[in-house]
Amino acid sequence: MKQKTKTFFLASAVTLFAFSLICYPQQSLEASIRGLNMWWEVVFPSLLPFFIVSELLISFGVVNLLGVLLEPLMRPLFRVPGVGGFAWAMGMASGYPSGAKLTARLYQEKQISAIEAERLASFTNSSNPLFIFGAVSVGFFHNPNLGLILAASHYMGNICVGMIMRFHGKAEEKERPKRPRRAFSLPYAFRVLHETRLKNEQPLGKLLGDAVRSSVQTLLMIGGFIILFSVVNKLLYMMHITEHIALIFQYILHLLQMPKELSIPMISGLFEITLGSQMISQTDEAELLQKAIATSFVLAFGGFSVQAQVASILAEANIRFKPFFIARMMHGCFAACFTYILWKPLYLQTVGNNTGAIPAFFAVHSASGWNNYWKLMQQFGPIVTISFLCLYIWLTAAAMPKKKQ
């Protein structure tokens, strides 16, 4: 009965989606173009270098070296092997869904167990500084100082999630033999690096080609999800479904003493963080603190678009998605709470400090740097995207077996 209900629900949802596309073709086209522009201007060129470098670092054994060195830190804090530190750092630097991709790769390489993969995926996925400072704080809010508190709340919340998720799967882990732990040893770390490189005897050109093809393939999947959820979000608004869901959000916002006008922007943010953050910044009825709290929750939750990307990546490696979703709910709550707690000591003092002291100087100049980088990505991103798509087509064609005449 449960499977029949699921089948009926999925069939109905897809049929409704197809019918909506027919009813609102113009709005669907505009939404898909908006999603496509976001993907090929910013997402593809900003994530591609991280994906390629990550693949190469894993192939050359650098990740194994870092795993030995970071074991004393990652194991006590998060109960994951030291290689998780690499996924954590790359996830924070490059943003969604890099952490999930690296976690899946480490699991497929048998460097972490399934439970450790679920823990690692829960706190290695986050928004990158480029998006927080460049797009949200400067682009949407026109307030460079806001990026500092959004970033601090976001990453502190992620650390809290990781420390809570260390208890995930504890009972299941007891039934399995424990892996031997090694103390910090630099000679042993370099020996592991050398042995890993020797195991992978493929030529450098082959490794580079495989890294580019794997990275572009993942980014094509990410682009599809961005466009899909951009259209879904628009169609829900056109069919007035968003307005009905907003009634529930208005009740929750009332309990939290926040204006009801934030309900529709937050619902949009639950589907796609870029549109949600932009709509929150344009809500005149809310105070800046209230808008910052709502934006922090949306950024940490990630949106169903990002979660669908992560679910697809984790599913390929047979890693459960449920722990990741629970972690995103916790991350949203933690980030919103930290924004409220840090507002006075971090934001108000930074804004009020107009004497040229270090905090205000650092906040403004670091944010302006990210904003300049964001504009460069929008200007030259499409060229990078098209170039690598052509390279991907050439590499894929070259890798295909040639038919005998």
UniProtKB/TrEMBL annotation:
Residues 42-139, 219-315 form the Nucleoside transporter/FeoB GTPase Gate domain. It holds the Pfam family Gate. The chain crosses the membrane at residues 47-70, 77-96, 292-313, 325-343, 380-400. Keywords: Membrane, Transmembrane, Transmembrane helix. NCBIfam families: spore_ylbJ. This is Nucleoside transporter/FeoB GTPase Gate domain-containing protein.
